[in-house]
Design goal:
Layout lengths: L3 H4 L3 E5 L8 H11 L5 E5 L5 E2 L2 E2 L13 E4 L6 H10 L4 E4 L10 H13 L3 E3 L5 E4 L4 E4 L7 E8 L2 H13 L4 E6 L8 H8 L7 E6 L5 H12 L7 E5 L13 H5 L2 H12 L2 E3 L2 H12 L8 E6 L2 H13 L3 E2 L4 H8 L12 E2 L6 H13 L5 E6 L7 H12 L6 E5 L6 H9 L3 E2 L3 H17 L14 H13 L4 E2 L1 H10 L7 E4 L2 H11 L3 E6 L12 E5 L4 H15 L7 E6 L7 E10 L3 E8 L4 H4 L2 E5 L4 H9 L4 H4 L10 H17 L3 E11 L6 E3 L2 E5 L1
Helix pairs in contact: 3-4, 6-7, 7-9, 10-16, 11-16, 13-14, 14-15, 17-18, 19-20, 22-24
Length: about 700
């Protein structure tokens, strides 16, 4: 697909151009003819002769010249007919403004539209979108009323209405845009395609996303990681709506119940290196800081303030955000004594006192910026009677022009600081409303700079038996069985070399006694039934059974299950070796499929209380060793692995390996809808793990 035909067309046809003022088809033509676009514009309307001084054509095929981009704003029922004509005209870019497709219960119509475009190599934006804007060439191929100022931010949004609000608000903040795209239903071109295009766009410095739903996590992760680690790294900042999953059907397994939609997106953003903004305000904070600063070389921040309280607030946020307070050199300390009063604070945060005027700010800022042990600076000003607000702002501007180090500014207040803030914004200084916001945004800038140094190591397993699992799943499919209980799930794990205790499936008391003799120790008895997923809920488990108790416990277990689940189809009892390890912990490992993103792997504190404590973290395929290690590190229960309260260290490395083996299983068999391994017992360091129970649900 040629996205240049979308963003840099030399000629545009508006199919559905309207003579009705205020209509979508009229506004698009008006925007293209009145906002500075110098390319050729061809209105298409069989009932009109002229529109905004331009000749109207009855259809796109009647246009005598080449058309690069077609904007379609006709009724949904005839869009595909029009698109066939666009394809016949050999147009290579199309924007379908019209609604009435998948979002309106017409997925077949949308599929037909995308197939026409795919077959004819037409880059398609939409349908059901606001359009596209490229301020650099004054192209407003949308029905947004305003042309945003040119700048370095590419904004991609699933909400057209949000686009218009962002354009309006960004002008106040002096944020300019390289591209503006309302992606709509994404029938063909999606965010990943646009990110790959914008990676090579010289006008784009930052990519911002408003996300409602994404597809294909692997594709997104690859595109963003390639961008971050490429020769011209650019940050991708996203705000995601719909954190809750109200109305979603409950899932049958533990993992499905815990893997809420937002958890999958949180994992996606973390793995890909996408910076997540949790509010619109935070998104604009990040955009200002990223567009107006170069990347820092380290995480050492210096804070300059004329008030102690805001300095302390900034310091707390700096530490909480993973940054460190810069410790300046002795030489810089000595220089500060020449410009600051004796009662000022010569240590970070640098409190230069409430009577600080512009010269004191400027002198201090120059010394701090010159210090080799400072990577970035946060400047705070509170308006006091002697404060030179405007002059201080100009001093900061002068200092910023002479340094490559990031400077983020917080002039606290309202009316008194408004003009100074406006002055700094017009000179590309990042100004934020409160010190905590400034510190947090600076932390995001620093975090992005560090991502370029992160390793990415793939798992490589050569000991798995894929054929064995293929047979198990094929046999289940032939039986029409989708839910694979423990008795069928454990062989799947064994094929992928998950360590398991000894176990046997028996049909009667005699077989149970024979199994116990082979195990030669205490055992667990577990009911085997395709109808029972959570055995403990109906009394289907007996633990720590002594060899002489097996006969009695077998009988009791069968009786209890018949009482609590009378219709369940019982297939026997699984006799499993009991583990006796003094230092160990029960974890859960599992996965469920997000409808758009794919398989989300989950790890966390396990056992029967998994859904109560909910100490879990998620990762999306493909998973690297570093991703898996970070999933474990994100758990509160990681303190148990690391030997909390004097306990012995557990085998965290084997847990990370188990995450990798599960990821490989999910990659090899995408028909797995859900899987739980619970509990997965983590043994002492160097002793590995043991999977004690599992269940699998196939699509």
């Amino acid at each position: 697909m040629n996205l240049d035909s979308i963003f840099n067309p030399k000629s545009v046809a508006i199919i559905g151009a309207s003579t009705e003022v205020g209509s979508v088809g009229n506004d698009i033509v008006k925007n293209l003819t009145t906002q500075g676009y110098t390319g050729k514009v061809f209105p298409v309307n069989p009932k009109a002769t002229k529109l905004y001084g331009l000749k109207c054509y009855p259809d796109v095929l009647s246009i005598p010249e080449k058309v690069d981009l077609a904007i379609i704003a006709v009724p949904a029922s005839i869009v595909t007919t029009v698109m066939h004509e666009v394809a016949k005209k050999k147009v290579k870019g199309a924007i379908v403004i019209t609604a009435g497709f998948k979002e309106a219960g017409q997925p077949e119509r949308e599929l037909e539209l995308s197939e026409i475009c795919r077959k004819n190599n037409i880059a398609l934006i939409g349908p059901n979108c606001l359009g596209v804007i490229n301020p650099a060439i004054k192209l407003n191929a949308s029905f947004a009323a305003t042309m945003p100022p040119a700048g370095g931010v590419a904004f991609l949004s699933q909400s057209g209405a949000l686009c218009t609000a962002v354009i309006d608000y960004a002008q106040k903040l002096e944020i300019g845009f390289s591209k503006f795209v309302s992606v709509g239903n994404k029938a063909l071109v999606d965010e990943t395609d646009l990110i790959e295009y914008l990676a090579n766009d010289p006008e784009t410095k930052v990519i911002a996303l408003y996300v409602e739903q994404l597809k294909d996590a692997g594709k997104i992760i690859h595109a963003v990681r390639k961008l971050i680690h490429g020769p011209n790294p650019k940050p991708v900042i996203a705000i995601k709506s719909g954190k809750t999953l109200a109305g979603a059907s409950a899932s049958a397994s533990h993992t499905g119940a815990l893997a809420g939609n937002d958890a999958a997106y949180e994992a996606l953003f973390k793995q890909a290196g996408i910076i997540r903004a949790y509010s619109t305000n935070e998104l604009f904070d990040y955009l200002r800081v990223f567009t107006h600063n170069q990347l820092p070389v380290g995480n050492r921040v210096a804070i300059i303030t004329n008030a102690g309280g805001p300095g302390v607030l900034a310091t707390d946020e700096v530490i909480d955000s993973g940054l460190s307070l810069a410790q300046i050199t002795a030489a810089s300390q000595k220089k500060l004594t020449a410009v600051l009063p004796a009662w000022a604070n010569f240590h970070n945060p640098f409190d230069i006192l409430g009577d600080a005027k512009a010269k004191r700010y400027e002198a201090t800022l120059k010394i701090i910026l010159a210090d080799k042990q400072v990577d970035s600076v946060l400047v705070i000003l509170t308006p006091q009677t002697m404060t030179e607000i405007e002059t201080t702002a100009k001093a900061i501007i002068n200092c910023k022009k002479k340094t490559k180090k990031p400077i983020v500014v917080n002039f606290m207040g309202g009316r008194l600081v408004t003009e100074a803030v406006r002055t700094m914004r017009s000179d590309q200084i990042s100004t934020l409303q409160f010190p905590e916001q400034a510190a947090r945004s600076l932390a995001m800038l620093t975090k992005f700079a560090g991502q370029q140094k992160q390793k990415s190591t793939k798992f490589n397993f050569t000991d798995i038996n894929k054929k064995a699992v293929t047979k198990i799943f094929t046999d289940a499919q032939n039986r029409g069985q989708k839910a694979l209980p423990e008795a069928l799930a454990l062989p799947v794990l064994a094929a992928y070399k998950f360590p398991l205790p000894k176990y046997y499936i028996v049909q009667n008391e005699t077989e149970a006694e024979a199994a116990v003799k082979k195990i030669n120790g205490r055992v667990a008895l577990k009911i085997v039934s395709p109808d029972i997923l959570h055995k403990s809920d109906i009394g289907g488990i007996a633990l720590n059974v002594e060899p002489h108790e097996v006969k009695q416990k077998f009988h009791t277990l069968i009786k209890t299950v018949h009482k609590n689940a009378p219709t369940a189809d019982l297939k026997g009892i699984l006799v499993m070796e009991m583990l006796h390890v003094p230092s160990s912990a029960e974890f859960i490992l599992g996965a469920s499929k997000d409808p758009g993103l794919g398989a989300a792997v989950m790890v966390g504190l396990g056992g029967i209380f998994v859904e109560i404590f909910k100490d879990v973290s998620f990762g999306l395929l493909p998973l690297t060793k570093e991703n898996a290690a970070q999933m474990v590190a994100d758990l509160k229960a990681n303190e148990i692995i690391c030997g909390a309260r004097g306990q012995k260290h557990l085998d965290g490395k084997s847990l990370v390996e188990s995450i990798g083996r599960l990821a490989q299983l999910l990659t090899d068999f995408p028909q797995i809808k859900e899987i739980d391994i619970n509990p997965l017992v983590i043994l002492q360091e160097g002793q590995g793990v043991k999977a004690l129970d599992a269940r699998i649900i196939l699509e």
